[in-house]
Inverse folding.
């Protein structure tokens, strides 16, 4: 048990970085910001898995050792507990005066009357009555066995919690996806639908529970100081039979208030803006696109990103790679300018503006390598295959013109929400074990284990006097206070028996 307690302390200590540091599975953007802001220290923490605490090797090793230790101490304790429950209370000691609690008196009542009072007073106690030489009668009684029951329930609940936690990691999964809040839909049809997906060890992503979510709008309310007060997404969803009937059910999705459907939990994790750009090419063709940009300042929602365009009507691959466009830079919901440097005063889109660089050339989208939607491939810039051809600050409705006649206009802004889908088939088991742990802990802390012995000795003499010596001894099996008062009341009742009562 000492080993288990040490490991439990280490487990709690190991969980602290998960509460103090951003975790990649919950907020990849915040994690990336932290690593970038702390340089070599952030990179060292990343290599040591401090941003993925609960899936790290060292955290897993601690709870596996804790589980082994718990099993090793619970099995023998359970066997001993069963033996103790089946056994009888111990014999009455010969010298009760040596007990921590002791009282002795002679009463005006018979042995049977004293024993009748004792039986009534010790109702609910595990007790056994014995007869000794000379007509002496004894009672051994014990109470508080549920304390040990609570102790075992607590530790078995902890063991179950670890097991169900491991099962959840084996058969659960989590995925994140960005959805525009303009009626766009997301369906849980496979891993390809997610921006990032973390399957359990036994999940291959081919048999996900089907459901669809449509994000109709997003509302954010802020206090006067810019502090967020309400984040709310009005969504509709389909699951189960609704997918066959085409029925959409409304739901108001809030932070920490997930949508639960078909064994999935859908969380609202974040939000942001997608600037809308329209590119008009020299031949008159028009392309409009809204791509989500990543917030770099959560207080003002100043965002950065890259909106990328392929040239229309160009079939030659080599030519197309020289005419791709990317609109990169900063977006400010409530723009303020310090000279020509754009910043944002508040997170609401009161005066949206962008500070953009127009990049033209090869975006590297055909290289076969994955590419972030939030930025351009810097290697293309370094090699000279992607060049900046314009830089400008644009307010809503303004446009700039490139040398070849191409126009880039800032047309507006859309909201997007960042959703997380979590599937954990073991969450009910985790809840049951957590409740069992609390109940067991309460029982082990509140219930006192104590024993009491009663020796009733008849006094020789006139039978009509019926005098009896009553001796009571008590022992608390725990260090908790309170048994002294209970023993005083109990012994007072037993030593105050009178003839005929």
């Amino acid at each position: 048990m000492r080993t288990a307690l040490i490991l439990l302390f280490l487990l709690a200590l190991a969980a602290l970085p998960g509460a103090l540091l951003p975790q990649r599975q919950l907020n990849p953007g915040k994690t990336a910001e932290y690593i970038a802001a702390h340089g070599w220290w952030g990179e060292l923490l990343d290599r040591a898995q401090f941003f993925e605490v609960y899936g790290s090797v060292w955290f897993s090793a601690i709870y596996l050792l804790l589980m082994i230790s718990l099993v090793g101490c619970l099995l023998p304790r359970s066997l001993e507990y069963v033996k103790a429950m089946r056994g009888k209370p111990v014999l009455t000691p010969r010298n009760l005066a040596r007990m921590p609690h002791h009282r002795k008196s002679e009463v005006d009542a018979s042995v049977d009357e004293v024993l009748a009072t004792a039986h009534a007073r010790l109702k609910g106690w595990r007790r056994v009555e014995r007869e000794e030489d000379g007509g002496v009668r004894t009672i051994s009684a014990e109470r508080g066995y549920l304390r040990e029951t609570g102790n075992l329930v607590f530790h078995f609940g902890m063991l179950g919690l670890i097991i169900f936690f491991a099962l959840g990691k084996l058969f659960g999964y989590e995925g994140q996806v960005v959805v525009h809040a303009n009626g766009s839909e997301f369906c849980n049809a496979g891993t390809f639908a997610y921006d990032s997906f973390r399957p359990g060890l036994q999940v291959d992503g081919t048999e996900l529970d089907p459901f669809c979510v449509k994000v109709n709008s997003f509302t954010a309310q802020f206090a006067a100081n810019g502090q967020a007060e309400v984040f709310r997404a009005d969504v509709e969803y389909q699951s189960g039979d609704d997918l066959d009937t085409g029925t959409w059910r409304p739901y108001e999705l809030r932070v920490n208030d997930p949508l639960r459907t078909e064994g999935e939990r859908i969380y609202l994790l974040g939000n942001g803006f997608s600037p809308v750009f329209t590119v008009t090419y020299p031949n008159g063709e028009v392309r409009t696109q809204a791509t989500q940009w990543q917030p770099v300042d959560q207080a003002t929602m100043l965002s950065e990103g890259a909106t990328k365009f392929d040239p229309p009507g160009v079939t030659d691959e080599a030519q197309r790679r020289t005419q791709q466009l990317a609109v990169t830079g900063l977006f400010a919901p409530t723009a303020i300018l310090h000279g020509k440097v754009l910043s944002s005063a508040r997170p609401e889109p009161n005066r949206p503006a962008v500070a953009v660089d127009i990049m033209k050339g090869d975006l590297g989208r055909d290289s076969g390598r994955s590419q972030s939607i939030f930025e351009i491939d810097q290697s293309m810039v370094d090699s000279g295959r992607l060049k900046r051809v314009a830089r400008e600050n644009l307010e809503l409705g303004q446009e700039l013109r490139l040398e070849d006649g191409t126009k880039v206009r800032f047309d507006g802004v859309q909201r997007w929400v960042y959703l997380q889908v979590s599937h954990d088939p073991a969450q009910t088991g985790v809840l049951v074990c957590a409740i069992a742990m609390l109940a067991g802990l309460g029982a082990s802390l509140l219930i006192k284990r104590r024993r009491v012995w009663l020796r009733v000795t008849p006094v020789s003499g006139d039978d009509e006097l019926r005098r009896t010596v009553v001796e009571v001894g008590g022992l608390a099996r725990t260090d908790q206070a309170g048994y002294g008062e209970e023993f005083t009341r109990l012994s007072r009742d037993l030593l105050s028996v009178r003839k005929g009562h």
In short: The CA atoms of residues 136 and 457 lie 5 Å apart. The chain is about 30% helix and 35% strand. Residues 57-86 form the longest helix (30 residues). The longest strand covers residues 264-280.
